[in-house]
Amino acid sequence: MSCRVPIAAGNWKMNLRRDQALALAEGLARGLAPQGAVEVLLFPAHPLVEVVAAALRGRPLEVGGQDLHPEEWGAHTGDVSAWQLVDSGCTWVLVGHSERRSDHAEGDELVAAKVARAADAGLLPILCLGETLAERQQERTLEVLDRQLTAVADVAPTELVVAYEPVWAIGTGETASPEQAQAAHEFLRTRAGELWGATRADQLRLLYGGSVKPDNAPDLIRCEDIDGFLVGGASLDAEKFLAIIHACGASAA
Ligand code: PEP
Fold it and tell me: What is the count of structural domains for the chain?
């Protein structure tokens, strides 16, 4: 039996205006069990991070950024630095989300530099990785996961969290089956053991992301190597996200 505390993380992407974000955060905070056995993380768009973090101070939810720049500061219009996220109340940051990899052509080297910068600033990175549909159809899933994980081998802090998010399942309504997700997670834990040793691999929290909903969360979270979820669409609805958090908590009980 692992002692990994499950994580339920909500990626709000470029959604919600300020009042909506505050109402959602408040609804989630009110709906959470007081002694929750789940770490609940919210990733608002950068302009909303500070106000959401302030509203949640003292509540059992933490806030993170959706991205960061690999450099400490400088002439990078539109980007956000690790220290600015820290000053805004973030404790976590997403790195290498597939929408960053595709919309902004982020490659493994840049993703690794971002993980290093996050660790340097004391932010806990969630490394997002996963194969495209074409890569799965070409049976290259494990090769892609290997490459994306190995890229951060030398820079990842011990607290690194990894989110396996098959690109074909993100925002599509199509979820990996528990068998597909477990196979990918088992591979990632084995590779983590080769890179960082057995103890760290055993402690590594591996989240699944890709159209997680209240009805598929219970079956996915029962898989041995799934330690929680990174949730997009369903995290914008308090009732749905609370049901997913509850499923994570039930698995930890
Ligand atoms: C995500 O954006 O990380 C994600 C998993 O989105 P969705 O849950 O909407 O598929």
Answer: 1
Domain that holds residue 125: 7-252
Cβ of 11 less than 6 Å from ligand 1: yes
User: Quick one: average pLDDT of 156-181?
Assistant: 97
Q: What is the pLDDT of residue 181?
A: 98
Identify whether 228 is part of a domain. Answer: yes
Q: How far is the CA of 74 from the centre of ligand 1 (A)?
A: 31
Q: Closest by alpha carbon to 59, among 22, 84, 17?
A: 22
Q: Is the CB of 10 under 6 A from ligand 1?
A: no
| CATH assignment of the domain containing 143 | 3.20.20.70
pLDDT tens-digit map of 48-79: 999 999 999 999 999 999 999 999 999 999 99
pLDDT of residue 35 exceeding 80, the answer is no
Does residue 210 have its Cβ closer than 6 Å to ligand 1?
yes
